[in-house]
């Protein structure tokens, strides 16, 4: 059965953790979906982990659409969400509707994620949800603001924590179906999670969120540099290197093909 936003909300009530991972192409998406990942995010972090950029800022809406289309073709069960990239939605509500509309029309995915909880973005998100586009929020560390925030943990001072809490409430009222909480103190994430009727998905936000998300390239050990909160469950760099060496050896020794 396909996962819906309503299902995610039910899982929050049932205290059944929501398993989320990122994906960037058909093959990875198919594997994750068959492993019963609930929510698959076409994250703009692919700009860094897959395309080799220094930040997430350079990736374009056309590139995100290209990746999201491939991911969608690999998925049968999971809910698929696509990040709107830097400057494809911040200019105006009209721009956001146009970009989100293109993602839904051209890829098949069912929802978009926008970074930020400041008043203008809350207004834009309210407009998107009003016209029937499911939106996921993303607050705390928002990597598209790297030049202002760096990659430091957010919400450390009481003032900052209060602001993030209020952003979470505002986004929920604007109709988001879920919110990513990135790199904030565990206690703050727990307070937000308890207050909101919608599920929180944490990354570097402690274990009291309604679900967790990890960049799949980090989980697989494909990235050379990882955030302090990421975890690798396998070292694919090592495994791939070994396989390539085995292949090279057999070719050199004329043992492949037989
Ligand atoms: N592979 C990958 N995994 C991610 O989780 C991820 C990306 N890429 N790209 C987009 C953002 C960037 N993220 C990051 C990257 C680095 C830190 C990090 O190193 N933080 C340190 C130092 C911060 C500093 O002072 O610059 C920390 O201690 O918080 C955190 C989050 C999370 N996201
Ligand atoms: C880490 C998740 C939340 C993300 O936004 C991304 O991968 O781009
Ligand atoms: Mg992102």
UniProtKB/TrEMBL annotation:
EC nos: 2.1.2.11
Cofactors demanded by this protein: Mg(2+)
Annotated TM spans: none
GO cellular component: cytoplasm
Pfam families linked to this entry: Pantoate_transf (PF02548)
Chain residues that bind Mg(2+): 44, 83, 115
Catalytic center residues: 182
Signal peptide coordinates: none
Keywords for the protein's UniProt record, in alphabetical order: Cytoplasm, Magnesium, Metal-binding, Methyltransferase, Pantothenate biosynthesis, Transferase
Catalyses which reaction(s): (6R)-5,10-methylene-5,6,7,8-tetrahydrofolate + 3-methyl-2-oxobutanoate + H2O = 2-dehydropantoate + (6S)-5,6,7,8-tetrahydrofolate
A GO MF label: 3-methyl-2-oxobutanoate hydroxymethyltransferase activity
CDD domains: KPHMT-like
Pathway the protein acts in: Cofactor biosynthesis; (R)-pantothenate biosynthesis; (R)-pantoate from 3-methyl-2-oxobutanoate: step 1/2
GO biological process: methylation; pantothenate biosynthetic process
Annotated binding of 3-methyl-2-oxobutanoate, by residue: 44-45, 83, 113
Note describing how the cofactor binds: Binds 1 Mg(2+) ion per subunit.
NCBIfam families: panB, PRK00311.1
Subunit structure comment from the entry: Homodecamer; pentamer of dimers.
Family assignment from sequence similarity: Belongs to the PanB family.
Protein name: 3-methyl-2-oxobutanoate hydroxymethyltransferase
Organism: Aphanothece hegewaldii CCALA 016
Upper lineage: Bacteria, Bacillati, Cyanobacteriota, Cyanophyceae, Oscillatoriophycideae
Name of the gene: panB
């Amino acid at each position: 059965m396909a996962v819906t936003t309503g299902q995610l909300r039910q899982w929050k009530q049932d205290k059944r953790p929501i398993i989320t991972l990122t994906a960037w192409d058909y093959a990875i998406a198919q594997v994750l979906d068959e492993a019963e990942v609930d929510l698959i995010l076409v994250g703009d972090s692919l700009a860094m982990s897959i395309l080799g950029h220094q930040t997430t800022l350079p990736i374009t809406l056309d590139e995100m659409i290209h990746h999201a289309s491939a991911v969608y073709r690999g998925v049968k069960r999971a809910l698929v969400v696509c990040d709107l990239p830097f400057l494809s939605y911040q200019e105006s509500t009209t721009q956001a509707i146009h970009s989100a509309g293109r993602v839904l029309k051209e890829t098949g995915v069912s929802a978009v994620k926008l970074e930020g909880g400041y008043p203008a973005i809350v207004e834009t998100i309210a407009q998107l949800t009003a016209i029937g586009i499911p939106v996921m929020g993303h607050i705390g560390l928002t990597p598209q603001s790297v030049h202002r925030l760096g990659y430091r943990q957010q919400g450390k001072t009481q003032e900052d924590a209060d602001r993030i809490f209020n952003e979470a409430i505002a986004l929920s009222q604007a109709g988001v179906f879920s919110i990513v909480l990135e790199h904030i103190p565990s206690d703050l994430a727990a307070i937000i999670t308890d207050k909101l009727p919608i599920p929180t998905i944490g990354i570097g936000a402690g274990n009291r969120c309604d679900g967790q998300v990890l960049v799949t390239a980090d989980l697989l050990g494909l990235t050379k540099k990882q955030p302090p909160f990421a975890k690798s469950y396998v070292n694919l760099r090592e495994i791939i290197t070994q396989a390539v060496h085995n292949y090279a050896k057999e070719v050199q020794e004329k043992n492949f093909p037989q």
